[in-house]
Specification:
2 strands; two-stranded antiparallel ribbon; 4 helices; alpha+beta; 33% helix
């Protein structure tokens, strides 16, 4: 009997009691080459993820989507306008509030209309 086959049988029998893995086939071709076969392990279903949903490509020639169009024509609360302007221009929101002193100013006629 081949020496490699005896070693293979001894390893296989000794590993059978300690290992819960499926047996692998190892063949010693000669002193310089060893051939082994490892069967593919089944992948557990619990570790898999579902495929991402397919998003259909728009057939429109416009480069913007429907969501962006809706956001442009959507009526917003007037109180949110200073916040949006402040984000766009990187300033404070107080810059975009109307000045109260201009509302309180009197609209008096000049005493000389030619000035």
């Amino acid at each position: 009997m081949n020496v490699g086959r005896r070693i293979f049988n001894a390893i296989r029998l000794s590993n059978r009691t300690y290992s819960k893995l499926p047996p692998e086939l190892v063949v010693f071709m000669d002193d310089s080459m060893v051939v082994s076969w490892h069967p593919e392990q089944p992948f557990p279903y619990e570790c898999s993820k579902p495929l991402p949903p397919m998003i259909p490509k728009p057939t429109s020639v416009l480069k913007i989507g429907e969501a962006e169009i809706k956001s442009v024509f959507h009526k917003t609360n007037p109180k949110m306008t200073p916040h949006e302007l402040a984000k766009l221009t990187y300033t404070t929101k107080h810059r975009w509030y109307p000045r109260a002193r201009s509302k309180k100013a009197k609209t008096t006629l000049p005493d000389r209309p030619y000035l």
